[in-house]
UniProtKB/TrEMBL annotation:
Residues 1-294 form the Isopropylmalate dehydrogenase-like domain. The keyword Ribonucleoprotein does not apply. Its cofactor is Mn(2+); Mg(2+). It comes from marine metagenome. InterPro entries: ICDH/IPMDH, IsoPropMal-DH-like_dom. PANTHER family: D-MALATE DEHYDROGENASE [DECARBOXYLATING]. This is Isopropylmalate dehydrogenase-like domain-containing protein. GO terms for molecular function: metal ion binding; oxidoreductase activity. Keywords: Manganese, Metal-binding, NAD, Oxidoreductase. The keyword Magnesium does not apply.
Length: 294
């Protein structure tokens, strides 16, 4: 059914070769239908090298502009929130531009006048297509039929204002979907105060990144948090990965939680057209939790 190929790219590869992956890695990956990425990271390698040497090039080359991060509190799993139940929402994160556009630089390095410039890039196309995806995802989930947009347009008066305008324009094409717009600081508070009210959240690269970790934190932790990096056209491969890092501090102790990686593989199976496999895996995960195996 599946033809798997394994590649040893990552931080170990970097320590041996001074590159996170081979020079032709992106050309090699372009021939596959999907990518299942294991957790990467090592204290000996700065995080910005891990991110810019592996993850971001893959996302950009294959236009994986949608990051889907489900936040689901499994039955018989405790939340850090008192009396939490029925938590089931999804964060749709813009994955190709915004605050992670990697545009900027340093001036007068290593002296008292050192200056750094980091530019966020928002395009109408980029904002519109991720917001459209969020509305379509709300329809496919058929849960609360609600989309919440997260920005900081009161303080960031250009890119975020355009995002707000795009959200308004797209929402008018979906009259049966409830909408909500929140500033990111208020959204952080509301995810803790009223998480059961959310269905689909759509946010920029940075805000989606932060909020999805908060979402994982209130629904069982990083050990059960899968994610995907999607190119909806399916003309190029999409990538699936656990939200967590490599956790070198618990390496070799036999206590790492594999569920996030397993659930990421389940999302990949569904993306490839095998939704029944995803259902079976999710049932197995719930039974594993019920039986106190993890």
């Amino acid at each position: 059914m599946f033809d798997f190929h394994y590649f040893d790219w990552g931080t170990d590869y970097y320590l041996k070769n001074d590159h996170m992956m081979s020079d032709n890695a992106l050309d090699v990956l372009s021939k596959f239908d999907s990518i299942l990425l294991g957790a990467v990271g090592d204290p000996k390698v700065p995080d910005h090298i891990t991110l810019n040497g592996l993850l971001l090039p893959i996302r950009r080359r294959f236009d994986q502009y949608v990051s889907v991060r489900p936040c689901y509190l499994w039955k018989n799993t405790d939340s850090v929130l008192k009396n939490a139940s029925n938590l089931d929402f999804v964060i749709i994160r813009e994955n190709s531009e915004g605050e992670y556009a990697n545009i900027g630089g340093f001036l007068h390095a290593s002296n008292e006048f050192e200056t750094s410039i980091q530019t966020a890039v928002f395009t109408r196309m980029g904002c519109t297509r991720i917001i459209e995806y969020a509305f379509e995802h709300a329809i496919s989930r058929n849960n609360k039929l609600k989309v919440t947009s997260i920005t900081k347009s009161n303080a960031q008066a250009f890119g975020m204002v355009m995002w707000d305008n795009c959200f308004k324009e797209v929402s008018e094409r979906y009259p049966n979907i409830a909408t909500e717009s929140l500033l990111v600081d208020a959204a952080c508070m509301d995810l803790v105060r009223r998480p059961e009210d959310f269905d689909v959240i759509v946010a920029s690269n940075l805000f989606g990144d932060i909020l999805s970790d908060l979402g994982a934190g209130i629904t069982g932790g990083m050990g059960t948090a899968p994610s995907s990096n999607i190119n909806p056209s399916k003309n190029l491969p999409s990538m699936f990965e656990p939200v967590h890092g490599s956790a070198p501090d618990i390496s070799g102790k036999g206590i790492a939680n594999p569920l996030a990686a397993i659930l990421s593989a389940a999302m990949m199976a569904s993306y490839l057209g095998y939704s029944k496999i995803e259902d079976i895996i999710r049932q197995a995960v719930q039974k594993t939790i019920n039986d106190n195996i993890i």
